[in-house]
């Protein structure tokens, strides 16, 4: 009795150029709104502190515990995206942002604040979903221009961070003007509106990636008792779908090294972000003697320059390799901040170095987010990227504790910022040297090598079933 012939699998669908552009724009808007909610809490924390009668140290403790909750949520969310899909992951992320905003308007104390703000981890995970989603969309796009400049187009999306921060600042100013600064709950309640709009855009306009759709079909064929068809489809598309859970996969074989190295690099680099970005005003005022008004203007100007850093590093990553620009960028940032903290206390000296520091501190995230998505196979891509990014929160917490401990031990703020922020940033660049390059992260003139290629094992399995 002859064996039924295995149906010839169809290749994965291509994404039209217009659809690729639409996807990119929606991802940018979604990330901007996620950042907007995250920054909104930090901006309104002093008002929340006053409302509940907390001391400043207790408010910082609440913020730290919220960061720990965010860390847990991001790690859990990554494997879910690898199981439920990229499109649903984006909807869950934006939906989580909406829930966090409304729930924050109803909090009654420290415990509920920590629990509710933990859900903002879903919003912060948006950048990981974006990296995974766009990596797969760009791999299948019909636009040769986007294929040649994948990192640059992703950097446009990642630049939603400063846009979201500016939106949060403007929204707080408007709500304070119309409802009073003490009515901070109104600001969180109204924040649901942009989240609902973005959720609708994703629901009606975005489709699932061809890669995830194919992986789902492979899993369904295996469950239906059709392993030959599943292996043939796997070989034809180059998509491996392992039975191991994604969280275990990212620590096995070729993935282990980059999982460990990049997680450590994120942790150390967030020493610098916690010091020079989150506490930038304190660094300028307490560390460099800049007056409050000048410090605020310097923060705004430096962050605008930092936004250009995203676009620059995204562009350079396509030309010279994403790992390379991350390493060089963070090393330069560490040196710039160190010179700034060791130099004289005058704005003419401080401002240029602060701008250079933020440019090379923040900009490389446009490259590293796309690089870490390229590091993993499609079936564990979201898990790996989310796991690595989650280590921003331990970095913020540990860096903050060390900075506080040094100041409490009678070190000058400038010295503490130098040790934690500048050295942490520089060392994170050194750590990135140990990251293993991936096939897609190479300088190229023409269309890049596709991120997904048939493996020898899968091809052999398909041949054996013919």
TrEMBL record:
InterPro entries: MFS_dom, MFS_sugar_transport-like, MFS_trans_sf. It is found in: Cell membrane. One of its GO terms (molecular function) is carboxylic acid transmembrane transporter activity. SUPFAM superfamilies: MFS general substrate transporter. It comes from the Bacteria. It is a multi-pass membrane protein. Pfam families: Sugar_tr. The keyword Transmembrane applies. Keywords: Membrane, Transmembrane, Transmembrane helix. PROSITE patterns: MFS. Residues 23-439 form the Major facilitator superfamily (MFS) profile domain. The keyword Transmembrane helix applies. The chain crosses the membrane at residues 21-45, 57-81, 152-180, 186-206, 259-283, 295-313, 325-343, 349-371, 383-407, 413-435. One of its GO terms (cellular component) is plasma membrane. This is Sugar phosphate permease.
């Amino acid at each position: 009795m002859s064996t039924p012939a295995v149906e010839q699998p169809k290749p994965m669908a291509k994404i039209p150029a217009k659809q690729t552009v639409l996807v990119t724009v929606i991802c940018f808007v979604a990330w901007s709104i996620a950042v907007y909610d995250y920054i909104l809490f930090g901006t309104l924390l002093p008002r929340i502190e006053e409302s509940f009668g907390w001391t400043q140290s207790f408010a910082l403790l609440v913020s730290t515990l919220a960061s720990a909750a965010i860390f847990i949520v991001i790690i859990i969310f990554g494997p879910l995206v690898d199981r439920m899909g990229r499109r649903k992951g984006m909807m869950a992320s934006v939906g989580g942002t909406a829930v966090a905003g409304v729930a924050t308007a109803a909090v009654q104390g420290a415990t509920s604040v920590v629990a509710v703000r933990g859900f903002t981890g879903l919003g912060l995970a948006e950048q990981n979903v974006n990296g995974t989603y766009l990596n797969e969309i760009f791999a299948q796009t019909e636009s040769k221009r986007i294929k040649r400049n994948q990192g640059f187009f992703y950097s446009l999306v990642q630049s939603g961070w400063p846009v979201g921060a500016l939106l949060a600042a403007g929204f707080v100013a408007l709500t304070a003007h119309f409802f009073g600064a003490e009515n901070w709950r109104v600001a969180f309640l109204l924040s649901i509106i942009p989240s609902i709009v973005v959720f609708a855009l994703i629901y009606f306009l975005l489709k699932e990636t061809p890669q995830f759709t194919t992986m789902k079909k492979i899993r369904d064929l295996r469950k239906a008792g059709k392993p030959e068809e599943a292996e043939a489809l796997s070989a034809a598309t180059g998509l491996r779908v392992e039975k191991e859970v994604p969280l275990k996969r990212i620590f096995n074989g070729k993935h282990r090294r980059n999982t460990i190295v990049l997680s450590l690099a994120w942790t150390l680099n967030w020493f610098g972000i916690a010091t020079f970005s989150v506490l930038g005003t304190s660094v300028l005022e307490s560390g460099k003697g800049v007056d409050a008004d000048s410090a605020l203007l310097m923060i705004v100007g430096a962050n605008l320059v930092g936004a250009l850093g995203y676009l620059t590093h995204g562009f350079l990553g396509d030309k010279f390799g994403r790992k390379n620009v991350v390493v060089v960028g963070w090393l330069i940032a560490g040196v710039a901040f160190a010179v700034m903290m060791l130099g004289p206390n005058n704005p003419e000296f401080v401002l240029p170095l602060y701008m250079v520091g933020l440019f090379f501190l923040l900009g490389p995230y446009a490259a590293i987010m796309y690089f870490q998505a390229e590091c993993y196979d499609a079936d564990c891509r979201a898990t790996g990227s989310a796991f690595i990014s989650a280590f921003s929160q331990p970095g913020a917490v540990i860096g903050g504790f060390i900075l506080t401990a040094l100041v409490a031990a009678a070190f000058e703020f400038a010295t503490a910022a130098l040790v934690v922020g500048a050295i942490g940033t520089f060392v994170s660049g050194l750590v990135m040297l140990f990251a293993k390059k991936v096939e897609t992260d190479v300088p190229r003139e023409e269309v890049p090598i596709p991120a997904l290629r048939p493996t020898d094992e899968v091809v052999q399995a398909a041949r054996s079933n013919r």
